[in-house]
Amino acid sequence: MMALPDFETSSEFTALERLVLRYAVAMTATPTKVTPGLFEELRAQFDEAQLVELTANIAWENYRARFNRAFDIEAQGFSEKAFCVLPELPAPPRASAPASRA
C-alpha cells in the first residue's frame, strides 16, 4: 500500500498490476480518461467477463468514495495512513538448551 503513489516506477508491482492501476486512475479521473489504447492493452490481458468484473469493482470503489465525500463521512480511525497494519505477535518461546549431564 505504501508503494501505491509510485506504482509506475515501484518494483513492488508487476507490469499487469501497473496496467490495472493505470486503468483505475483513468477511471477515477473527472472526467474519466480511459483511452482506447489503454483499453486495448487491458483487452489483451483479460477476457470480456474479467474486464466487466474489473471495471465494476473500480466503479464501485469510486461510487463509495464519492458517496462518503457527499455526506462528509471521513475515516473512522480503524487504521492510520489508509492501510491495515498487521498486529505484532509475541515472539515464540525459545527452546531451552538440553540439561548437561555431569
Question: Outline of this structure?
Answer:
The protein is mainly α.
Notes on the structure:
This protein is an all-alpha fold and 102 residues long. It has a domain of 62 residues. 46% of the residues lie in helices and 0% in strands. The protein contains 3 helices and no strands. The chain is extended.
How is the topology of this model organized?
Layout (H helix, E strand, L loop, with lengths): L14 H14 L7 H10 L2 H23 L32
Helix pairs in contact: 1-2, 1-3
Helix-strand sequence? HHH
Q: State which percent range the strand residues make up.
A: under 5%
- The percent range for helix content is 40-55%
Rg is 22 Å
Number of helices: 3
Question: Mean pLDDT, nearest integer?
Answer: 85
Low-confidence spans: pLDDT under 50, at least 5 residues? Answer: none
Oligomer: single chain
Tell me, what's the shape?
A: extended
Task: Report on the biggest sheet.
Answer: none
Q: What is the number of strand segments?
A: 0
SS content category? mainly alpha
First-last Cα distance = 56 Å
Which characteristics define this entry?
extended, 3 helices, mainly alpha
